[in-house]
Amino acid sequence: MGSIHVPAKLSLPANEFEKLEGIMGIYNKLIRIRVANKSTTKQKVFSIVIAIIIGVILGLLAKIMDNPSYFNPIFTEIGDRLGIWVFVATLLSVFSYSPKLAAVKIFAFFGSMLTVYYVYTTMVLHFFPEREIIFWSICAAVSPVCAYIMWYARGSGLFSNIVSALPITVLLSEGFELCNAYLPVHTHYYLIPWLMGIYLIMIVILLLIIPKNKIRFLIILPIAIILSLIVINFNIFGRIFGE
């Protein structure tokens, strides 16, 4: 797919013409990073439906397993943390036909997941966690923008490397913070090595399957480590989540 050029004789006011040129310039840069795959309407709809189904299933499982009395507490700990959702959303985004479809899929995923999770919470458990609902609703609202950007992780160039490093940064940072998750020592302290192992597996999976050129992980990983050190040093997650 070639670059798009704005016709020189296009009848537009000067300021509008400059805006259009700017938009086309950004578009041309983006398609050099990664070109969208052609897809039919049926394929797009199917892709969105799959994202909704995954959201419903994971939302229901996360809520059901939220009770450590009936399930191993490791499932509760995974579902209650940001990492697993970033991991799933990243995979859904990068393996979409286009950035626009990635945005729609992720909004559908989080919308269905959160709807099932909190409908179960309020209707079955008769509990209304207002603060959590507001926070995750904001996350769902901004998720399409994140997904649109994340789609370019499987492209080429520095921008793709930085984007690829972002979900790994989240996993590295949250995984490191697990060291302090059960201090002072409490009954679930034994879960820390297991949780760290799961986070390591998710990181390895992303490093192996996101970049088309596998050697790129030699660039992506150092970027993620540097960003993680910044996140940890400035306690960014603690500030966001009020910890």
UniProtKB/TrEMBL annotation:
Source species, domain of life: Bacteria
Check the UniProt entry and state the signal peptide residues, or none. Answer: none
InterPro entries the UniProt entry points to? DUF6518 (IPR045393)
**Which residues are listed as membrane-spanning?**
45-62, 82-99, 106-127, 133-151, 158-176, 188-210, 217-237
Q: Which UniProt keywords apply?
A: Membrane, Transmembrane, Transmembrane helix
Family annotation (Pfam families): DUF6518
Q: What is this protein called?
A: Uncharacterized protein
